[in-house]
Specification:
Order of helices and strands: HHHHHHHHHH
Strand content: under 5%
Helix content: over 70%
């Protein structure tokens, strides 16, 4: 199949249909987990053909990573409040506590699957980790340009680690899901002081 044919076929799925497919994938992931999720199950749930799914996404790892990326409530780069604190707070406020609880459970399950699946790890790096890092770097660069953060502050390279750590550790340490209040307090008490804000 030539690249032009693949591109033409890929364009047949409307953004609305794509969003519907991604939602179905996320629902299945929450129900059965990554290992038990099959392209057959996605095809059945979405009334699609497996051939269409493979042609559009290539495989399960790519489909799952793109579904998780699509399901994120907000993009870091879309936020520009004029201050780093405002940007980080706005980012947290994109998802309500119920969504955070669902996403936390989903990410815990996927974190286990990533370690045993190189294709999923590659897809997550490409579609989630690298884009998130790039977006966060832009937010931090704006803070540097505004004079809020020193350009040589070593903590800037660890902001995503801090945020993911807080999100993941909340359940492990406190046996509670992450909430807006918890994450906003964490940003104010840990992230911003580390950045000298």
């Amino acid at each position: 199949m030539t690249e032009g044919v693949a591109t033409t076929r890929r364009s047949r799925i409307t953004p609305e249909r794509e969003a519907e497919l991604y939602e179905a994938v996320l629902d299945l992931l929450r129900e059965v987990g990554y290992d038990a999720l099959t392209m057959d199950a996605v095809a059945t749930r979405t009334r699609s053909s497996k051939a269409t799914l493979y042609r559009q996404w290539g495989g399960k790892a790519e489909l799952v990573a793109k579904a998780v990326r699509h399901g994120k409530p907000g993009r870091v780069a879309e936020v520009d409040t004029g201050s780093l604190k405002g940007d980080l707070h706005a980012l947290i406020l994109h998802a309500d506590d119920c969504e955070m609880e669902q996403n936390s459970a989903l990410m815990r399950g996927l974190a286990m699957a990533v370690h045993g699946n190189p294709d999923l790890l590659r897809a997550f790096r490409e579609h989630l980790i690298e884009p998130e890092l790039a977006e966060l770097r832009r937010v931090l660069q704006r803070a540097v340009e505004r004079g809020e953060v020193r350009a040589d502050n070593p903590a800037t390279g660890f902001v995503l680690h801090m945020m993911i750590g807080a999100f993941a550790a909340r359940t492990l340490i406190d046996e509670q899901p992450p909430t807006q209040d918890f994450l906003l307090s964490y940003i104010d008490a840990v992230v911003l002081p580390a950045l000298g804000v």
